[in-house]
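SEQUENCE-TO-STRUCTURE ENTRY
===========================
Question of interest: how does this chain fold, as expressed in backbone structure tokens?
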Amino acid sequence: MVVDLLSLADASALLGVSPERVRQLVVGGQLPGVKFGNAWAIPRDALAARRWQPGRRGRPLSPMRAWARLLAGGVDLAERSQFLHRAELFRYQMSRADLDALSARYPVLVSGVAGAIEHGEPLIRSGTGGDLYVPESFHERLPQLVAMFADPLGSVSIRVVPEEAWRMLGEALSDLGHGRPIVAPRSAVALDLLDSGDPRHWIAAEHLVRGER
């Protein structure tokens, strides 16, 4: 997979903010980036997504409050910065088969494009990419279950939810083992789609949150 990378200076020009602000976004997990020595590089697709939906600033909610809002639905995507602490984001590379096995056999929530499809959006899943929400305790076990390696530009996003907040999602996991993946709430899927560089995913995100109201 070839990724078009931009320097902090080029990224700052596209976003209309200072290079230091871009660095803060990368370090804070709000933009993906990869470090080469002392220099950061940012994928162009991630910048396109942020330009389309920059979001209003606001103090992030605690994980518990963020998930309470997401479960209730009706989230305004312009307030996505408030949901930053819903999970800690890790990026990996792994095979499509391993990703599908995790979705089908273990206590995880499917999000991103696969989650949007489960919610009825007419998207097409391609490549090996995917988004999953997992509890902290399960994240620690992942290397024992599948072949994977950490990659700041990896196509698989694993979003790790604190244990206390994960327990709030217990009802969503009640059908585990019935042969279908368990899907993250519509609002959470919509927020994750905003990280994509594909405008079709942004439109699907809007559809998902409008469908809750």
